[in-house]
Amino acid sequence: MYMEGRILKGIGGFYYVDTKEGVVECKARGKFRKTIGKPIVGDLVELEVQADGTGYLLEIKSRKNSLIRPAVANLDLVVIVATEAQPKTEPFLIDKVIAIAENKGIDSCVVLNKCDLNDSQELYEIYKSVGIEVFRLSAATGEGVEELRTFLRGKAAAFAGNSGVGKSSLLNRLIPDFAAETGTISDRIGRGRHTTRHVELVPYDGGYIADTPGFSSFDTEQMDLVLREDLQYAFREFEPYLMQCQFTGCAHVKEKGCAIRAAVEAGEIAQSRYDSYVKLYESVKDLKEWKLGKEQKR
Ligand SMILES: Nc1nc2c(ncn2[C@@H]2O[C@H](COP(=O)(O)OP(=O)(O)OP(=O)(O)O)[C@@H](O)[C@H]2O)c(=O)[nH]1
Ligand SMILES: [Zn+2]
Question: What's the gap in Å between 86 CA and the centre of ligand 1?
Fold first, then answer.
């Protein structure tokens, strides 16, 4: 029987596909290996279900977007969990994940957790000024969680955050049996979870949620694939100023007459966001476009 679905997880050559009829365990057999490559979590697939209830993948639909690490496709949203309570989140980490998401055309939002301890006012103001959705909540008390729940409805969202920020507490509040649902998290009694690269989607309220093991999983590897001159577009609040720099091709780092730097001076762009931009700018390699094309085909 022919069906369609979405890959929730892949383990040892088997893919678990969410379909109208439930989850089907599949092997990959399609021709796509030569074109799109290996199936990844989040892929929308066509499958053939056999008499014994197992299936095989026939086709992978073209991806709306995909991340390298965690390897996941077709995300609608990256949710960055952060806090000014302990362990305080460094804005640079938030900005890096936002930049990666923006570069891939994935929307992002910031969730400020532990608001029972600290209202994270500084981070709140920064990300409000950027123009992305910001939520303040407490996974411990439940305050503010419903607003996030509403926002997530129907979306495929990946969660990221520094260790100890309360990501698992929040996921468990959103999906009461989240810990039980994911193999990843059952490893957590040990410290194994932090080294695993495994990513898994859990169906949630018409959408999906992926837990990803910490910020480190959003590796510089994918940042390396951002062309230096594209980085400016990954900071959405820079956009109104980009055409106003004195020199075309302005990198907004040291140049005279830079409208971005003027906007930072005037308090229109947050200093920490600009600092993150400069730090990322220095870190991305001088990739040439042809090399980028080659690497992305790999
Ligand atoms: N006061 C308060 N404590 C919280 C809140 N959310 C989580 N915590 C506590 O913060 C600690 C870390 O929470 P976790 O949910 O394990 O954090 P995590 O981000 O999943 O951390 P890793 O497993 O290291 O990735 C735990 O002791 C939680 O009880 C909150 O909203 N308020
Ligand atoms: Zn400039």
Answer: 10
